[in-house]
Amino acid sequence: MKGWSEGYIKIGTRTILLFSLIIQVAVICLVLYNIPLLTQCISFIYLSLVPGVLLLRILKINEIALTEFLLYAFGTSISLLIVLGLFINNLCPIIGISNPISRLPVVFSFSLFILAMCCVCYVWRRDDPYIIKWGEKQIKNINVLLYLCLLPLIAILGAYLVNVFNANYLLLSLLGLIAITTCLITFDIFIPKECYPLAIYTTSLAILYHKSLITSYLYGCDIQFEYHFAQTTLDNSRWLPQLAAHAHNAMLAVTILPPVYSIMLHMSIVWVYKVIYPLFFSLVPLALYEIYKKILDAKSAYLSVFFFMSYFAFFSEMLGLPRQQIAELFLVLLLLLITSGKNVRDTSATTLFLLFSFSLIWSHYSISYFFALYLVITLIFMRLDILHKLEVFKSSRSLQGNLLSANYVTLYMVFLVVWYMYIAYGTPFSQGVSTIARILTAIPQELFDPLAREQLVLQGAGLQQMEKFLNRISQYLHLITAFFILLGIINWITGKSQRIMKKIDQEFGIMVILSLTMLLFSLLVPFFTSAFGVSRLYHITLFFLAPFCITGGIAFFSFLRKILIKILRNNECFSYQLALKLVAVIVLIPYFLFSTGFAHTVSGVSYNPSIALGFHKVDSVYFVDQEVCASRWLSDVYDNGKIFADLYGTYVFRQDIKVRSLSTIDIPHDSYLYLRWWNVKHKKVLLREEIKEQAKLYYVDVGKIVNMSEINRLYDNGGSQVLQINQ
Length: 727
Hints:
By secondary structure, this protein is of the alpha/beta class. 61% of the residues lie in helices and 7% in strands. It has helices at 13-32, 38-48, 50-58, 66-91, 103-125, 142-165, 169-186, 196-212, 222-236, 252-255, 257-265, 269-281, 283-292, 298-310, 312-315, 322-340, 346-363, 365-384, 391-394, 406-422, 427-446, 455-460, 469-493, 506-524, 534-568, 576-595, 598-603, 625-637, 677-682, and strands at residues 8-11, 64-65, 130-133, 642-645, 660-661, 671-675, 684-691, 694-701, 711-716, 721-725. The strands form 3 sheets. Strands 5-4-6-10-9 form a 5-stranded mixed sheet. Strands 1-3-2 form a 3-stranded mixed sheet.
């Protein structure tokens, strides 16, 4: 490697090939003869980086920043794993191999694929060096790197203490350190600008791990079904699309990617979801930072990403949606290509754009639909030149000729329709059509009915006040950030943010306006968020809107500056940097501490929104050993009777046996009732009621559901029970 001191890394192609072959031999040995920890680390690097590095070398993608290089390498590696997994799943049975998704076929196929890529790379690029830009300044203080890398380790140890000793003090310290880290960056202390990408990745990973590693079981609703289909592929040693006409079964990020990692890393799919997927999902904030840097200075870009990570859906809801984690990685890589295509050759950018687009379709149907909507509307606006009269778009550059062409949009739409119609058996389309039909029907009838909106929509818009005091403070902080976003967009459109924001590409600018429009629709249009959920919608729109929270906050405090100047008659009483610091200290850091449950924990209140800090203080879809043991016992002795459980209790069974959710307080005789820890401890069960197609959750006493004198307690382990209802 050369050029380290000059701000770039120059690596010869032969060096890359030698490294690839060495790690190839090591992986074969480790997969066949498992050495704990070493197998997982080496195999992860092999699967997640080597294919992407070789493809980038073949495509001659050169002279890009180290962060962008790693992002593209990870993204292309995951895409190639999905493509190769799909290929061997369909080819191997033709040549007589009935178990393609098993250890020997997977290891052999991947080894052959890597060797073939090495040969192509040697023939085409053997004399071309790899030039990766490192940065203008070297990081001389090793303590900064050690401090930042320590954050995920603290999260891992803190989760262990919660699981074993129910002690949350280390996780509390972690969240405090993350807040302090943001303060250090805001005030230019200790952490230099060159370390911002590392700070973002390690902070993101620590935030995800502090929650994903709680309990040894999966957390969330959809993840239970995703696990079922991934484990089915692993058990059958083959993905069978005809096995179930279910949208999850058609997503290769569910049925191909987890089994491949499980096989190669000697790791159960549960731990692939809990450990490996957060490593990928943490790349999303890193890619957003690279995008935001093109329109903001480095510090403002960091704070924009910090705001994105502080929204609860990022570290809570998304952990229960592994396929969406992968889909968002591909989505943000597509946005990175759109905003920085000039750094990549046209042919190479187009190849990556197509690869990431197809992978997005294979990962998550809702995100694919959103991206299709963004593509079509952006292309229409660009072709018709509708927004050209706005001041902000007059001098903006466009990358339309390179990437967002009519041919590409047509190809994307055709592939989306073909895959979802013929592989997913039209399930995603039928869901989408029914949702659109419900919205159109409701507009003339229930336009002004608040019950036709999610409760979270009304709370997020400030139309419904939350009951708990600390939750109300959290709600007010959310409203402040929403106000900042709106103010930032208004200033951008009117051209008043030119001093703090660079020119935005026309494509990205149109997507910003579309994102704001979708949020307004979620408030104004009944049932608009019924299928996707307002929290997930807001999370996706923050991809585009997060920077405007920072610029809007700066604009707000700058307005206060003008007032102070008039009152104090002192032109030096305020500055841009001071406004940025006020946004971080007064709004963003408190927003983070309330979202993560830190404020609830240190205040000592009995309720807590975080299962990591308030273990057993909040009811959610997470399970402990006693609950799983009871569900397995019931599955073993199940004699075709009717089994009932409350809403969250049904998820512990996944799809092993059919369990009915308690939707009424009447349970027929000769039935079983499964009670979770929360049910046993609080003597309440969680029920779900549909009011105008909006879910309402409420608790009912167990005694109102069953007559305790007419039951047999078949199983009781102190944390979970199985009751039999007598005649």
